[in-house]
Amino acid sequence: MAWTSLNQGYQTSQFYTVAVDENLMANPVVIGGTQDNGSLFGSQDLPGANWANPLPGDGGFCAVANAGGATGTYYMSYQQNFGVYRALLDNSSGALLNWGRVDPPGADTSLWLKPYILDPNDPAKMYLAADANLWRNSDLAGIPNGSAAPSSINWSVLTGAPGQMISALAMSRSAARILYFGTATGQFYRLDNAATAAPGSPPTRLDVGAGFPAGAYLSSIAVHPNDDQRLLVAFSNYNVVNIFYSTNGGTTWTAVEGNLGGANSPSFRSVAWMPATAVDYCFVATSTGIYSTTGLNGSATDWHQEAADLVGNAVVDMLAVRPAEGLVVAATHGKGVVRGYNSPSPVLDEGVPTLVRLDQNVPNPFNPTTVINFGVAQSGQVTLEIYDVAGRRVVRLLNAFRDAGEHSVVWNGTDESGRFVGSGTYLYGIRSQGQEVTKAMVLVR
Q1: Which residues contact 242 (CB under 8 A, 6 or more apart)?
Q2: Which tops the pLDDT comparison, 85 or 44?
Q3: Beta-carbon neighbour count of residue 208 at 10 Å?
Q4: Rounded to an integer, what distance in angstroms lies between the CA atom of residue 101 and that of residue 151?
Q5: Is the pLDDT of residue 345 over 60?
Q6: Which of 53, 83, 180, 412 keeps 20 to 30 A from 295, CA to CA?
Q7: Residues 331, 317 contacting (CB under 8 angstroms)
Q8: Is the model more confident about 114 or about 345?
Q9: Which H, E and C letters describe the chain, residue by residue?
Q10: For domain 2-341, which CATH number applies: 2.130.10.10, 1.25.60.10, 3.30.360.10, 2.40.50.100?
């Protein structure tokens, strides 16, 4: 992979967490929680610009709900018991426009960094771990801005791990909406249909007999974006087997630390999947840098170091990915933030004129319809299609001759048979003049 530093003025920056908008192709925004220096906002497209600091203090977990348009919606948190906040930011500068606390009363007992995620198919839903409980917010938009007090609006205790501290969360993009979670003592669970399951639903425990290191800290879970049964699970302890792979939703497991194992094995902090055309890349962030592999093969798994010049053997705490475009962003503890692409960056080669422009759909997320604006520099045939995240075509919206200039199409959320499709992330792409541009959108039913 080709890696680029995103430090943009920081000489030393110690990031605990990092997040990108997983649904917007080519979106430049990166946010991250740092030690002592707040939750920061930066742009991959402005290498000379400084990072903005909309939420000072000690940064924690963060998430991007929507980084499109002039104003973005972001979630940032302080360490331990000081709350999770929604921040409305100017996407061009990172300036704070509005804010409000969103975590519920009674969720103030947690690990030092309280983990939470947004539903990848519906960013209005949040899943938050506090002590042994896993909370769900069914609609974050219902919580008003402007208050520093916890809010009980739309929160319920969805499930939990009795007697344990929940340490890691991940959710599938499939219709099954499987929520996987692990604990600080190595237990691992799944809950199917987590978006609609009744409060108090019992999860299925998956670590018994798995061969996981006894009592170890489960630090990260990665669900394959195209197959919710393929999982990676990492542990951050030293001198244990640190990473396991499942192809059947956690029923059986295989240790895959390979050449990173042994007496001097690093601590594994974060794992991520990156599907490509012919192979799947797996990435791991460790106490000695970033590593990748394209072949999970038990003890013979061969991991290769990434970003050796920019990161080297610095501690890497978290990875954020946007699989549709091959983007990986890494948060390091001492070397700032770096990004990499497992394929060329989605920008036309220098010197090649841009003949096709595709705008972000409006509104996004949307329900029931959205408008897609585009422009072509020359008259000719134009094709515009919608795909699901697995690459299957949902509907062809346009396949016709268009004059040079500005145009638009409307998608009403139906497939080629006129049936309404479900909530989720969809890709839309335009082809014309020998060029192709793709972006992502979110439909929320």
Answers
A1: 213, 234, 235, 236, 257, 260, 261, 265, 266, 267, 268
A2: 85
A3: 8
A4: 7
A5: no
A6: 180
A7: yes
A8: 114
A9: CEEEECCCCCCCCEECCCECCCCCCCCCEEEEEECCCCEEEEECCCCCCCCEEEECCCEEEEEEEECCCCEEEEEEEECCCCCEEEEEEECCCCCEEEEEECCCCCCCCCCCCCCEEEECCEEEEEEEEECCEEEEECCHHHCCCCCCCCCCCCEEEEEECCCCCEEEEEECCCCCCCEEEEECCCCEEEECCCCCCCCCCCCEECCCCCCCCCCCCEEEEEEECCEEEEEEEEECCCCCCCEEEECCCCCCCEECCHHHCCCCCCCEEEEEEEECCCCEEEEEEECCEEEEECCCCHHHCCCEEECCCCCCCCCEEEEEEEHHHCEEEEEEECCCEEEEECCCCCCCCCCCCCCEEECCCECCCECCCEEEEEEECCCEEEEEEEEECCCCEEEEEEEEEECCEEEEEEECCECCCCCECCCEEEEEEEEECCEEEEEEEEECC
A10: 2.130.10.10
| Calpha distance 187→214 (Å, rounded) | 9
77-135 per-position pLDDT tens digit: 987 667 899 999 999 889 999 999 999 998 876 777 889 999 998 999 999 999 899 99
What are 33's two structure tokens? 């929680």
438: confidence class by pLDDT, cuts 50, 70, 90: confident
Q: Tens digit of pLDDT for each residue in 268-306?
A: 999 999 887 667 899 999 999 999 999 999 999 999 999
Q: Which residues of 296-332 are buried (b: 16+ CB within 10 A; e: fewer)?
A: beeeebebeebbeebbeebbbbbbbbbbbbbbbbbbb
Pick the range with the lowest mean pLDDT from 43-47, 89-93, 142-146, 390-394.
43-47
Q: To the nearest whole number, what is the mean pLDDT of the chain?
A: 88
CATH number of the domain located at residue range(s) 356-443 in this protein: 2.60.40.4070
Is residue 376 pLDDT above 60, yes or no? yes
Domain ranges of the chain: 2-341, 356-443
Residue type, 11: Q
Q: Do domains 2-341 and 356-443 have the same CATH topology?
A: no
Q: Which residues contact residue 370 at a Cβ distance below 8 angstroms, ignoring those fewer than 6 apart?
A: 361, 362, 363, 364, 410, 411, 413, 441, 443
Structure tokens at 199: 């409060």
263: left (phi over 0), alpha (psi -120 to 50) or beta: alpha
Query: What pTM did the predictor assign?
Result: 0.77
